[in-house]
Design a protein that fits this description.
3 domains; mainly alpha; globular; about 525 residues; about 75% helix
Length: about 525
């Protein structure tokens, strides 16, 4: 059941109606039933995997919690007979046991994700090596990839790690944990929520309030507008350019960088708007996943604004733990001793950063283009860090320039183009082809001549469609700018005025039906991150 479908709209309406009709103590049961119906509709064979993740995580969390309880009870009973060192040794032993329990849960669940998502990729690479030596290639099995498995696995493993760290309590009710794992608005493309932030809201009773339902509905409509009017329309152009690399080089590639940046932003933020809007209509606050990323003046700032929950997950559960491991400490000591303090202190940090970004790329997809995408992001960030002293000197030497609006706009444009250039690895899905097409920007004169001679109009859209997209982009910029000002979101300010609220929703729905991908000649597609 695609978010971008009439069946989902009907399903969502029925769920909201039932959610507010049942007794408040039963509301979370409605959400659980709706989540499993949604997941079953996506694919009946997906259910065993999400159920296994739920049950195994429940068992692991309860085992860790029971171990902690026994530890506290034992220390309380034997406090008089244990000195400080004995208590410390006992706690360390129990923590080690909990770590081993945690490790079982992580290996089981990440193991399933690895087998389903990466077996084909691994065997393709093994066969490439076998082919070099003339051996017999291995067969590649056809495995299903459950909807949203990367999202719910990461979210649930974050929960287990937080239980181990003592940052959240282990859920005692397995059905409540099942709702946290399978909450249907998040299954498609996140955000990756934390148990301490989301769980209590899922189980709490909620009243039907205008201040929640109307802003939520406005945000849902706005999300569908971005997806169906802007993203899906721009995707027509993108598919055409990518379909013929011999024909569409030069200026077309430069145009592709800009077009795909617009498309993925409208698609991904549109989906997140729908998710957060559904939650808001139910009285549930879901974590924001974007904060005006194209206003960023550096790549580091960009990744603090784009896919925020994914970035914080890798930072908290990969980068920081990796940075303080004994292996990394030994590497730090060795590198300082042999390479000098200036270089040595960077080696462990850069090593942890490279590993984190390698895994981030691999999380996005089981192919080399995503791995290279992750490593290129890492390279740009590390170069930016090394250049920081130069930036500081520039700021000090030319303060009027670097504090001007012109300079801010220049840095934003620079960041936009850098990130957009790296991102087209996702479009061509082939590393050599991507670099070849990027090179064509500088040497393919025919592509430039064709584009400047009106080639845009040969990409599947007529002038009226380009105007619609342009208006949509201007609206997104305007809403983003207005929303960044004031102490309340624009949708909440609109909700204070019923006529304006319903008028806004009516206009958005009209635009979706007339200009969006439900119109003649268009086809609404699934949200782009459902592949993860």
């Amino acid at each position: 059941m695609s978010f971008a479908s009439i069946s989902f709209i009907i399903f969502l309406g029925a769920t909201l109606l039932l959610y507010y009709l049942v007794p408040k103590r039963a509301q979370w049961w409605v959400l659980l039933a709706a989540s499993y119906i949604f997941y079953f509709a996506a694919g009946s064979w997906y259910l065993p995997f999400i159920i296994f993740t739920t049950l195994s995580s429940y068992a692991v969390a309860r085992l860790m919690a029971n171990n902690s309880s026994r530890e506290s009870a034992y220390i309380a009973e034997n406090r008089e007979n244990m000195d400080k060192d004995a208590r410390k040794a006992y706690k360390a032993g129990q923590k080690k046991k909990r770590f081993h329990i945690l490790l079982v849960g992580i290996v089981l669940n990440f193991g399933i994700l690895a087998v389903l998502k990466y077996t084909g990729f691994a065997l393709h690479n093994v066969n490439a090596l076998i082919g070099v030596f003339g051996g017999v290639k291995l067969g590649i099995p056809s495995l299903i990839l459950p909807l949203g498995i990367s999202f719910y696995t990461f979210q649930t493993m974050g929960y287990l790690i937080d239980v181990y760290r003592g940052k959240t309590e282990a859920e005692k009710n397995v059905f409540r944990l099942a709702l946290f794992v399978a909450f249907f608005p998040q299954l498609v493309q996140g955000p990756i929520s934390r148990h301490s932030d989301l769980a209590s809201q899922l189980y709490a009773p909620h009243r039907a309030e205008w201040g929640n339902i109307v802003p939520g509905m406005i945000r849902i409509c706005w999300g569908f507008f971005k997806k169906l009017v802007v993203a899906d329309t721009v995707m027509i152009v993108i598919k055409e350019i990518v379909s013929d690399t011999g024909k569409y080089g030069g200026a077309y590639v430069l145009f592709l960088i800009i077009a795909y940046s617009v498309e993925i932003y409208a698609d991904f933020t549109g989906g997140i708007d729908v998710t957060i809007g559904i939650g808001e209509a139910m009285g549930i606050k879901i974590a924001e996943n974007f904060n005006r990323p194209f206003a960023s003046t550096s790549t580091k700032e960009y990744w603090n604004r784009w896919h925020i929950t994914m970035g914080s997950w890798f930072t908290d559960y990969v980068f920081y733990p990796l940075s303080i491991t004994k292996s990394m400490q030994r590497l730090s000591k060795w590198s300082r001793a042999h390479l000098g303090n200036a270089v040595g202190k960077r080696v462990p940090v850069y090593t942890a950063t490279i590993i984190t970004w390698f895994l981030t790329g691999l999380w996005h997809g089981a192919s080399w283009n995503f791995i290279v995408w992750g490593l290129l992001n890492c390279l740009v960030i590390l170069i930016s860090q090394e250049c920081q002293p130069l930036y500081n000197k520039l700021n000090k030497r030319f303060p009027r320039l670097t504090k001007s609006t012109f300079w801010t706009l220049y840095l934003r444009a620079q960041t936009f183009m850098i990130m957009g250039t790296i991102r087209i690895l996702d479009v061509y899905r082939n590393v050599p082809v991507t670099f070849k097409m990027l090179g064509s920007i500088f040497y393919d004169g025919r592509g430039w001549q064709s584009f400047l001679s009106g080639g845009m109009l040969s990409l599947g859209l007529d002038i009226s469609a380009f105007i619609v997209v342009a208006v949509g982009i201007l609206l997104m910029l305007a809403v983003s700018e207005i929303s960044s000002r004031g102490d309340r979101p624009l949708k909440n300010r609109l909700a204070d005025k019923p006529l304006a609220a319903f008028g806004c929703m009516a206009i958005l729905i009209f635009a979706i039906l007339i200009f969006g991908s439900y119109g003649i000649g268009f086809d609404a597609s699934q949200f782009i991150y459902t592949q993860f």
